[in-house]
Amino acid sequence: MFNRNTSAILNNICYYSTRSITEGFPTIYALSTPPGQRSAIAIIRISGQQSLHVYQSITGNLSIPKPRTAILKNIYEPSSLLANSKKKKNLIDSSLFLYFQSPNSFTGENLLEIHCHGGKAVTSAILKSIQSLNDPQRGVEIRYAGPGEFSRRAFQNNKFDLTELESINQLIEAETEIQRKCIISSFTGENNLKFEIWRQDLIKCVANLTAIIDFGEDIEMSDVDSLVNKVKAEITQIKVQIESFLNRLKKSRILKDGIKISLIGKPNAGKSSLVNCLTSNETSIVSDIPGTTRDVVDSYLDIDGYKVILTDTAGIRQNSTDIIEKMGIAKALKSIKSSDVSLLIIDISEEKEEEEEEITNAINNLIELSEAEDKRSMIILNKKDLVNDEDKMENITERLTKSFGTKYPIVPVSCITGDGIKDLTDMLTKEFKTLSEDLDESSPILMSQRVTDILQNDVLFGIESFINSVANEKDIVMATEDLNVAIDGIGKITGQAVGVDEILDFVFSKFCVGK
Ligand SMILES: Nc1nc2c(ncn2[C@@H]2O[C@H](COP(=O)(O)OP(=O)(O)OP(=O)(O)O)[C@@H](O)[C@H]2O)c(=O)[nH]1
């Protein structure tokens, strides 16, 4: 399989490689652009000791490519380039190569990118050629990468910490402008610095307590008490900071998961029309997906950069006269419970004297249910185009705004003419801002659920256990152990204390192949 220059190639590789922690690991390769799709170009990445061997074997070019400089080369089926090959050189494609030399690459290893023509046949021929170079008996181990394996190597070679790699992965998954901005600002050094400061402060506290444990007998009791109290005060301060960070994280989560809006209203009020209006005006993230029940349809929208999940609950016909009664109190409550914002759609063209009371009751009901659930609501007066009398329209809006509008926005719209829809999306955007930002208006932060879970279940748990132990005058050695749980927790977040492969498996399994 090897051509006559194999040893020269291997020598070159050894000479040009700088040692990385993952040296000796099999070389990995993968298609980094979406598989199975036709595209102008596709990118194949190869990382590891054999990257140069791959380059030389598929181009027949024995020189070392200049790092970080694009170079155009023909790619051939490697066996057709062997000195003893009776085959004609089998050209696969003409591609751009980019070579990053260890340690100055994403993975920290020698890394080669092939920018070839997109499409199934070209990419699969190149991938097959790379795989054909695997020859473990000769010490050449090359295999297809697993999910997130390039990032895992980057972590192992200290190129990035876990939160940085998770953020890059989230950036790839970002669907809206707000998500993108939020992820970019979340993985600035500021947040990582916070983790490091907390960790260092906790370590200092443990060191002080260890001094008591080691030299307790030589220290005055009053000094011991004052030292413990000093540590407790410091820990309480760290706890406040972590709780506030956690609150911001939890509040911001809605930006990633999407803000859930449910539409409530009498049959024919115009719920489906409003969904259509919003889906055609705003960017649809994915097409309509049927919900869990037959009468619920979810639409995924991008409204002013916010990811929104709009749930259209089909009206339920019952004999009651009240809008919410007609829909079914239980159903309305379920909608309100499962959403962040509820929109009550009222067909304003029906507003006659006798219906005034019905509308007021419906709004009162919605408000009562929303307040009980601590949820936000808005009232949409639909079909304003059917109210010919402008004074009448104004009167209705004024009357309702007077009664409810200070807390619950009232927006007149027409789903047919589109009038008022811009006002509605502006109002919604204001609500989204309130929902995703803290009262102090500190910017939202998007990090993985893993970070939130560890902060809650390890870091805060350890700190609270410590404070309880001290309050109950428990053994200082045990209390110190609680702090160690918190310190290890922060280490798990950034990857500093990751000794277990399971955590790495968990983190990187969420990445795509080729990342
Ligand atoms: N003139 C006018 N007609 C509207 C407007 N919005 C909806 N309609 C009409 O009202 C009727 C009912 O609208 P839908 O959107 O199906 O109402 P819905 O609330 O989804 O009805 P259900 O599915 O039965 O609950 C349709 O004929 C719509 O074209 C509007 O703003 N102006």
From TrEMBL:
InterPro entries: G_TrmE (IPR031168), GTP-bd (IPR006073), GTP-bd_TrmE_N (IPR018948), GTPase_MnmE (IPR004520), MnmE_dom2 (IPR027368), MnmE_helical (IPR025867), P-loop_NTPase (IPR027417), Small_GTP-bd (IPR005225). The keyword ATP-binding does not apply. The keyword DNA damage does not apply. One of its GO terms (molecular function) is GTP binding. SUPFAM superfamilies: P-loop containing nucleoside triphosphate hydrolases. Keywords: Coiled coil, GTP-binding, Nucleotide-binding, tRNA processing. Transmembrane segments: none annotated. Gene3D superfamilies: P-loop containing nucleotide triphosphate hydrolases, Probable tRNA modification gtpase trme, domain 1, tRNA modification GTPase MnmE domain 2. One of its GO terms (biological process) is tRNA methylation. GO terms for cellular component: mitochondrial inner membrane. Belongs to the TRAFAC class TrmE-Era-EngA-EngB-Septin-like GTPase superfamily. TrmE GTPase family. This is TrmE-type G domain-containing protein. It comes from Naumovozyma dairenensis (strain ATCC 10597 / BCRC 20456 / CBS 421 / NBRC 0211 / NRRL Y-12639).
